Amino acid sequence: MSYGLDSGDVLEAExxxxxxxxxxxxxxxxxxxxxxxxxxxxxxxxxxxxGKAALDYLRLHEGGGRSLPRMVLLDLRLPKxxxxxxxSQIKRSERLRAIPVVVLTxxxxxxxxxxxxxxxxxxxxxxxxxFEDLKRTVEEIKEYWLGWNRSPGPx
Length: 155
Fold this sequence. Notes:
By secondary structure, this protein is α/β, with parallel strands linked by helices. It contains five helices and six strands. Keywords: Phosphoprotein, Transcription, Transcription regulation, Two-component regulatory system.
């Protein structure tokens, strides 16, 4: 597996399970990807640093012919287009709305929480401060969303 620091970097493996990670903080993104790797995730993580890049990526893949992500990990405080707008556009799209979106943010604001759920977020989690706590959070995300949860996937 390889790590990079540029928008559009990919953590690749053979399993077709794709997670779209939308995170502008390099350190947070690296820790999240490292936690998935240490937990034995064998899919692919596609990391984008801003909301516009995420929407462009999803629009490109939405048309068919390319694999859509099976889960989106979304920060709210993003450059260019904020996470709330990314979430709103995902959930308004007939083809994308079934993709689980997990907000992973530092925001503890009740307004952000209410707004995310009004836009049909699947889960809202606060980023832990330590790597060990983040690793536990990622482990729980992986166990629930990639293990127990069943979803129909994109339309």
